Fold this sequence. Notes:
The structure holds 3 protein chains of 3 kinds.
Chain A: H1 22-34, E1 39-40, E2 54-56, E3 77-79, E4 88-90, E5 94-96, H2 106-119, E6 123-124, H3 132-137, E7 141-145, H4 154-159, E8 162-166, E9 178-179, H5 186-192, E10 200-201, H6 212-225, E11 232-237, H7 241-251, E12 255-259, E13 268-269, H8 270-275, H9 280-293, E14 301-305, H10 311-319, E15 324-327, H11 329-335, H12 343-348, H13 373-376, H14 381-405, E16 419-421, H15 424-430
Parallel strand pairs in A: 5-15, 6-7, 7-8, 8-11, 11-12, 12-14, 14-15
Antiparallel strand pairs in A: 1-13, 2-16, 3-4, 9-10
Helix pairs in contact in A: 2-14, 6-7, 7-9, 9-15, 10-14
Chain B: E1 2-9, H1 18-28, E2 36-42, E3 48-53, H2 57-60, H3 64-72, E4 77-81, E5 84-89, H4 94-103, E6 107-112, E7 115-121, H5 124-131, E8 140-146, E9 161-164, E10 167-175, H6 178-187, H7 197-210, H8 215-225, E11 228-235, E12 239-244, E13 253-256, E14 260-264, E15 280-282, E16 289-293
Antiparallel strand pairs in B: 1-8, 1-14, 2-7, 2-8, 3-5, 3-6, 4-5, 9-10, 10-11, 11-12, 12-16, 13-14, 13-15
Chain C: E1 2-5, H1 11-19, E2 29-33, E3 50-54, E4 69-72, E5 88-91, E6 107-110, E7 123-129, E8 143-148, E9 164-167, E10 178-181, H2 185-197, E11 208-212
Parallel strand pairs in C: 1-2, 2-3, 3-4, 4-5, 5-6, 6-7, 7-8, 8-9
Antiparallel strand pairs in C: 9-11, 10-11
Amino acid sequence: MDRPTPPSTAQTLPRNSHTWSPETNAEIRRAAETGIYDIRGGGAKRKLPHFDDLLFLGASMSRYPLEGYRETCDTSVLLGTRFAKKPIRLKIPVTIAGMSFGALSGPAKEALGRGATLAGTSTTTGDGGMTDEERGHSDQLVYQYLPSRYGMNPDDLRRADAIEIVVGQGAKPGGGGMLLGQKITERVARMRNLPQGIDQRSACRHPDWTGPDDLEIKILELREITGWEKPIYIKIGGARPYYDTALAVKAGADVVVLDGMQGGTAATQDVFIENVGQPTLACIRPAVQALQDLGMHRKVQLVVSGGIRNGADVAKALALGADAVAIGTAALIALGENDPKWGAEYAAMGTTADAYDDWHEGRDPAGITTQDPVLMARFDPLEGARRLRNYLAVLTLECQTIARACGKSHVHNLEPEDLCALTIEAAAMAGVPLAGTDWIPGRTGL
Amino acid sequence: MCGIVGLFLKNDSMRPRLGEMLTDMLITMTDRGPDSAGIAIYGEGDQLKITVQSDSPQTGFAGLDADLAAALDGPVTMRVIDTHAVLTLPDGTEAQARAFLLDRGLRVMGTGHSMEIFKEVGLPRDVARRFGLRAMSGSHGIGHTRMATESAVTTLGAHPFSTGTDQCLVHNGSLSNHNRMRRVLADKGFAPLTANDTEVAACYLSSRLAEGADLGQALEGTLQDLDGFFTFVVGTRTGFGVVRDPIACKPATMAETDDYVAFGSEYRALADLPGIEAARVWEPEPATVYFWER
Amino acid sequence: MQTIDLATTPLRELNTALQAQAAQTNQTEWQILNPKGAHAIAVGLDAPIEVTVRGHTGYYCGGMNKQATIRVAGSAGPGVAENMMSGTVVIEGDASQYAGATGNGGLLVIKGNASSRCGISMKGIDIVVHGNIGHMSAFMAQSGNLVVLGDAGDALGDSLYEARLFVRGTVKSLGSDCVEKEMRPEHLDLLRDLLDRAGADARPEEFRRYGSARKLYHFNVDHAAAY
């Protein structure tokens, strides 16, 4: 903010309150004007302890690194080895998280499918059913089974490669979705069996089961319908990761997908996104602990999502015990979401590139989170697929670079002991020592 | 998260078969709760009984009856069943006996004139076999199979919970205000011993009964004071009650004939009861108290 | 008639056999013995076969059914005919909670009573209940028809979309945004057809129709108490 030139006489400067900041006051005025909470897309924007606060130790004298260009560092992942006859085989430890057709345009879903397939990984449907575009362009497609059951049908269930039962997501553990009327176009409405143009509120609980004892029976039904072929994932938000992971395992999951609070959503109340759930960093160790306590680590695979941006984040999540990570927001940015080239249009909407989050309004200049045919036409799915493939390749190369530096011939051999933390908070949350010490707050003595 | 079974006999000639019927019902609910299992059985007898548990029963129960008799200065008998022992005591010695037993490092499962409680970690089939549940007789009983949500998988964390003489409670669901309620109950002198939300509900009922409420009133109170999702089945010396929360998502099935009232989390638990084909089978309504007294 | 006894045949074998039936099968009649409340009986079928279950079923009997006619000569547990696409499911006894949940099509007939949340989030299925239904029935129901010859419990049709609800008896209470609506000739015709197909002995004129007031379709702070 431009500060006024201090007057020559003794006089205090105007001083904004930290409690009553301009952003806070603007939000009070907006609420008073409209009578509705702020709805937006994305994940938590507040500053949180994150993977940036961790560092790898690397190899030197006591550990020996691998040669970058000659010695293999395997990145393959097998998901669903517990009960499913046909596990998912990924070439890289990065998958594409569930994002709905409706929240995203058809071409954007197609680009995700093409890009992921080129990179040897899977994509995931979302709240709104499976489209032919994404099924056709995704070599391996995970079909989400959500509380709303929009578009749910046995044919798509059978043509999916895995089934992900969504209990919660990191942006809103305990909440359902909010997709506003502008995006409920004729096709979206038809797929969801809703009147066109209404504000759509998705359910927060499943309609026909509540709790892990009933979920076990639901999983039995889904397995019976699909011949016990497909891995059953259970997706949980970062709420109580130890208990939720343990209960997912007890209910019969093949894979647990754990989404921290930086994980995105197409549309939910800002108050929910910013105030409910735990940071991704804080969720991983309790979940891994639950798997270890049940003797199921690496037998029931753990996929972590929420704020994965680069290969270092991937490597850190794996080192903390994940089997793979999933990306949503990062994949959209790779496709071209929030690109500064649309700066003038963002400015016209009162925002800027990289801050635009009103995905539910359907006016995305990048043509990705929209159902507007004019805006959609700006997005080329082939170009988007190429960009996503490149980005996934970089994530993998970066992850391998770090793994080799730590002497690992498979990225799954990264372990918490390869890490140290820069802050006490991160050390406590990740359960790794503060750099330069052997102190893990909450685990070892001072 | 769990499976519940309950059986309240109206026909006294069926009493010798109570254990057998309840055991089959309990084992059927294994999928809903493989972590631990327990049963409260209301049998004959006028004498005060305490059921205690020891992880090392050989040493834990050695000479216990004689030592307790000496401490209480009155007759004590002891029946050891696996990790549990049922002690009969002179009336009026409950508090003294409880303190003595806790001091010996034993866990008190429950006290009652007719009620005995047996619960352990493990599969329902194994728990039933260890205690010989099948051979037990009585007028009514309640059983539970547990899939632990947040509190530990331990003997004390297993259901039924008994927090008052001849009172027991089992639960399917998850309470959302049990920590706050725990502090309120502690102030009233009904502090739960475990971190389990179900024990809070049991203590709540005991506190209300101690204040003079009848079972029906105490169950009505759960609808006001406990939040979250619950189906409770409770037993007293002469009664058997059921209540579900107002949302009532957790499953509950009941059956009634001239011979019995039965409760099961699923119909499967009731499927082999005698005369079930002709029974009135229904689901308890939300926020509605059901209870039977003999 | 093919007979499968669940006392001796694993569930997996039962469903594998039923799911393997094609549209042009000559084994069109099946009966299942000793269900004893077992879960996921006859799920994911996709052929015009007739299956009779002799006894009570557990959760999700007839789940995601297409084309098949499934008759339960007994009562059904939670989520019977959940997400049904087409075909017919008939329950001779009572149905537990969530009957016909999220169903997209086909006809579900319950000769006895249905418990809570009957027709929750229904998406096009037709449900005819000869007896009563429990609380929160047709919650968030999107489309299709729910016909009740008896009484309805609390909060009928809460947060309803375009599903049509017809009740002959009393309604304990209506949920948010659910209102009684005028019964027009086309509704009487629709109802007559549904009653006929469900073998229900009732006249369309005896019913009242309930539907969405459509006040929650777009957010309005004046309706905040209903959200």
